[in-house]
Design a protein that fits this description.
Blueprint (H helix, E strand, L loop, with lengths): L2 E6 L7 H15 L4 E6 L5 H12 L5 H25 L4 E4 L6 E3 L8 E4 L2 H8 L3 E5 L2 E3 L5 E3 L4 H13 L3 E6 L20 E3 H9 L7 H10 L3 E5 L7 E4 L12 E14 L8 H10 L7 E4 L7 E7 L3 H10 L1 H4 L3 E14 L9 H11 L6 E5 L2 E7 L3 H11 L11
Parallel strand pairs: 1-2, 1-9, 2-6, 3-6, 9-11, 10-12
Antiparallel strand pairs: 4-5, 7-8, 11-12, 13-15, 13-16, 14-15, 16-18, 17-18
Helix pairs in contact: 1-3, 2-3, 5-7, 6-7, 11-12
C-alpha cells in the first residue's frame, strides 16, 4: 500500500477547531487507500512560552533540559491530533521522536538525524493505524532527548518518508505554495506550479521561509516529491521535484531576501598570518554559518577577509573569534550592521550569460549600492543596505518579468 507523510505547521494547529480540520484532511487521504504518517509541530507561541518559563528560572539553563522541555510542545499536538482522529472512528496512535526511532547526534537544540528505525511505524501500519509523530525531535546515543532546531518538523517528515519509501510528502502551511517572491512585500508575485530541488534549496538558503534548507536537501537526496499547500484553501500547491519545465522561458524564477545580515571583517598584519581554512573550520565546528566571503590582498594594505553571518549568530561568532585570536593570528576584527541580502534564483541562469550584469545595472539605475556579491550557477546574491531591501526585491522582480509566471489552477 502506498504511503503519504503529511506535515502540519504551527499555523494549522492553533486551536482544537484547527486540529479537527487537520483530522479531516488526514481522513480524506486515508480514505484514498494510503497508509498515513502525520508529523506535527508545536502550537504557535507554545515553544516561546516554554522557553520564557525556563529563562525565569535560570539565565543559563542546561541545553539538555531545554531540549527535554521544548520537545513536549509538539508531543502535545501529536496527542491531540490522535484524539481527534480516534473521535472520528479511526485507529490512530501518537509517538514521540524517540518512540518512532529517530536517532540523532548530541548537538542539543540543533541536532541532526543519523538514522530512523521505522519498524514501529510499520507495526502500526500492519494494524491499520494512522501514525502521528511529534516533529522536531529525536534521541541521541546516550538516550537523551534532542531537538532539531529550525525546520525540524519538515526535516522529520521527509526523513520518515525516506525511511518508509513514501510516495510523497505534503506540507500544510498558512501559504498556498511557493511564490516568485514574498507576496506580502512584492505586489505582483506569482505562485509557481513546480520548482526544482536546486531552485528551492537556493530560495530557502537565501531567505524564503516556506521550506527549510535541511528539508530540501533530504528531499533531493532521496528524490522525494514534496507538495507545499494551504491548510485553509483547497487549491493546488507547489510541487518540489528534480526537474521542472521552464515557465514562459524565464531564466530567473524567484527573488528572495534576508534581513539582519552582518558583515564581519578580520584583518591580518601580514598575509603569511592568514589561514582561511583554520578560521572557517573553527566557525563550522561551532555551527556558525558563513555566507558571502570576500578576501582582499592589496599591496601596501593589510590583508582582510570579510564574510556575512546572520544577526542571531553574531554574538557566538565574536566569541569564537576572540577565543581563537592567538591561534588564528589576526590583528583586528570589525563589523557592519544594517545590511540585507537580496538574491535572484533560476536554473536557467547557468546557460544564459549576462543575468548578473542586468541585475547590477537595474540596481545602479535604482540608486541602490551593492556592498558584496556572491554567485553560483543558479543564483546571484548581493548585500545592500537593509532599508533598501524591499525596494531592491521589487525592482528585480520587475526587471526579470516574474509577474509573467504561470500560476497553477485552483
Amino acid at each position: 500500500m502506498a504511503r503519504v507523510v503529511m506535515k502540519f505547521g504551527s499555523a494549522t494547529l492553533t486551536s482544537t477547531e484547527h486540529i479537527q480540520d487537520v483530522a479531516k484532511k488526514v481522513i480524506a487521504e486515508k480514505e484514498k487507500g494510503f497508509e498515513i504518517v502525520v508529523v506535527t509541530t508545536a502550537m504557535r507561541g507554545m515553544s516561546k512560552e516554554l522557553a520564557k518559563m525556563a529563562r525565569h528560572l535560570s539565565d543559563n539553563a542546561p541545553k539538555r533540559e531545554l531540549d527535554a522541555l521544548l520537545s513536549t510542545s509538539s508531543q502535545l499536538t501529536s496527542a491531540l491530533v490522535a484524539i481527534a482522529l480516534q473521535e472520528e472512528g479511526y485507529e490512530a496512535v501518537s509517538l514521540t521522536g524517540w518512540q518512532v526511532g529517530i536517532q540523532t547526534d548530541a548537538m542539543y537544540g540543533n541536532a541532526r538525524i543519523d538514522e530512523i528505525d521505522a519498524s514501529r511505524i510499520e507495526a502500526h501500519f500492519m494494524q491499520g493505524k494512522i501514525v502521528i509523530v511529534a516533529g522536531e525531535q529525536g534521541i541521541d546515543n546516550s538516550r537523551n532527548i534532542t531537538t532539531l532546531g529550525k525546520g525540524g518538523s519538515e526535516t522529520t517528515a521527509i526523513a520518515i518518508a525516506a525511511a518508509l519509501e513514501a510516495e510523497r510528502v505534503d506540507i500544510y502551511t498558512n501559504v498556498d505554495g511557493v511564490y516568485t517572491a514574498d507576496p506580502s512585500q512584492v505586489a505582483r508575485a506569482q505562485k509557481l506550479e513546480e520548482i526544482s530541488y536546486d531552485e528551492m534549496l537556493e530560495l530557502s538558503n537565501l531567505g524564503s521561509q516556506v521550506l527549510h534548507p535541511r528539508a530540501v536537501e533530504l528531499a533531493k537526496k532521496f528524490q522525494i516529491p514534496v507538495t507545499t499547500r494551504s491548510s485553509e484553501k483547497d487549491t493546488v500547491g507547489t510541487l518540489l521535484k528534480e526537474e521542472v519545465e521552464m515557465e514562459k522561458n524565464l531564466v530567473v524564477r524567484g527573488v528572495a531576501y534576508e534581513s539582519d545580515v552582518i558583515r564581519l571583517t578580520v584583518g591580518y598584519d601580514a598575509y603569511s598570518n592568514a589561514s582561511l581554512a583554520d578560521m572557517f573550520t573553527i566557525l563550522a565546528e561551532n555551527r556558525i554559518n558563513v555566507d558571502i566571503i570576500v578576501q582582499a590582498i592589496i599591496d601596501g594594505l593589510k590583508p582582510t577577509v570579510s564574510f556575512t553571518i546572520l544577526k542571531e549568530e553574531f554574538a557566538d561568532a565574536l566569541r569564537v573569534l576572540e577565543d581563537s585570536k592567538l591561534s588564528l593570528g589576526f590583528s583586528f576584527a570589525d563589523f557592519e550592521i544594517g545590511l540585507a541580502k537580496v538574491s535572484i534564483i533560476g536554473s536557467g541562469m547557468a546557460s544564459n550569460p549576462g543575468v548578473a550584469a542586468r541585475m547590477f545595472d537595474r540596481l545602479r539605475r535604482e540608486g541602490i549600492p551593492v556592498k558584496m556579491v556572491s554567485t553560483s550557477e543558479i543564483k546571484v546574491s548581493v548585500v545592500v543596505p537593509q532599508d533598501e531591501m524591499i525596494r531592491a526585491a521589487n525592482a528585480l522582480h520587475d526587471e526579470f518579468n516574474l509577474f509573467q509566471q504561470m500560476s497553477p489552477k485552483a
